[in-house]
# Entry
Amino acid sequence: MSTIRLTMAQAIVRFLTAQKADIDGEILPLFAGVWAIFGHGNVAGMGEALHGVREQLPTYRAHNEQGMAHAAIAFAKASRRRRMMACTTSIGPGATNMVTAAAVAHVNRLPVLLLPGDVFANRRPDPVLQQIESFSDGTVSANDCFRPVSRYFDRITRPEQIIPALQRAMTVLTDPAECGPVTLALCQDTQAEAYDYPETFFAEKIWTPRRIRPDRKELAEAADIIRHAKKPFIVAGGGVLYSGADKTLASFASKHGIPVGETQAGKSSLAHVEPANLGAIGVTGTGAANALAEDADVVIAVGTRLQDFTTGSWALFKNPDRRIVSLNVQPFDASKHNAKCLVADAKAGLEELSEALASWKAPEAWTQKGQSEKTRWFKEAARFTDPTNAELPSDAQVIGAVQRNTVPSDVVVCAAGGLPGELHKHWQAAQAGGYHMEYGYSCMGYEIAGGLGVKMADPSRDVTVMVGDGSYLMMNSELATSVMLGLKLTVVLLDNRGYGCINRLQRATGGESFNNLLQHTRHVTLPDIDFAAHAASLGAKAIKVQGIGELESALKEARKAERSTVIVIDTDPLASTDAGGHWWDVAVPEVSIRPQVKEARKAYENALAMQRLGD
# Structure
């Protein structure tokens, strides 16, 4: 057997360069690059190894470990999980900074390879700088924090261990059902140790997406349930996009006359002009999609994990006879809430389900009801997004301005706060992947780093990041990275002077405004933050606008700009779209001295009666 002597770190990067992806017949590197912030735990081992392959496997430097991992995750999401990136850090805070991002990837079923440095395997210099010591377990390090948020975790204490570890990692990263973050904790002394690796370990391997076909019996049972439906309704989740099933879904819905509602992850599965597309479903849903979901007797869940925002905390589907058919590549998701499982890839499953249904169509009256509700919703929603001369516009009015200044190929990126709800209701995606929302983990700070990852995945598409002042303050450093890399973003920063979304929720549950908006926090002096000046200091073009008219002019200028532009606009922290939507289970205290809380508790107890679990 032919061997080659390499350090463990060199073996890792050589292996990564050998992994390829078949993207519609084009062979590309599976790993588009490695994000790296070097420290004493990885600069000597991984740093030297990455330098040796810098032309084949680009290394990108970020400003924050969580941010760079968000960028990698967004890249994978925008690439529909067919390409990915790796991230390497030192031990200690560099590693644990990535734990939140690992949770984002885990919840959203997205592939990312995390390579944090770790303590010395030989333990001779213990305790080393940044080492977390357990008083009761000598095998524990800070990297054990990754265990619950990784699909696969391994600690590499000998150089030859990387052979089975990387092979196992690849099966997880590329498997449509198991897909998620992989963490290989690399002991810093082991990174530098050499081993005679078999040359076959570095042979090129081309990965193509696995399409799991449905079981014959499950398919027949699912088709039989749908054939007996009078009011079928499709819930399109992120799995539709990951599978590349957007055109298949459009054909299926049209052929069988079934209305469609989109989750946050599934939005842009269908173009907004598709007749069957009634828009967002659930807590932040449109009046059209929710009206039909409430009445549906068969809910066909495609590629969705049916989280509470989608199901209205399991109170949305009100038809007492409703059944759920869950088409999902992961049995864990397909079996939720006593659903009839159809374990399959979304594209393959929809194709075979359509064949099984043959010429069957939903009753015309039901299909027409969907069209009528959609027309009514668009008319109603326009009231919230139309231009205004208000000194403090609402989030929806800002969204309307951004929408009017887009082209069909544009991508809008967002993550947490009040904007996801308004975007879910109002944004009109023209093309698949035109709506990129991280709402599985609802992670503040994802927005700008995520926009960077989206731009890296497809530089031909203009990317607009919408972010609140709260999220911007949490993580803005990758704005500088976008400038450094020449990856232009348009960032629309809505300044409502605090956490406006949670302030509204606080008041809706009977609470008094407290500790969310800056004016309601303990303070000596209220901060007057010049966000435009801050963004400019990071190298971006920046402008503060007054009102919607100036915003629209600034958006036109940003499209012409050669580097990232940040547009800051003051907004109303209290205004939100009061049309559409649905109840969400947020527990209200049973005991309070405040009458507003007592009233909210009564309303909460009444709403709980609508929940239907396990039927």
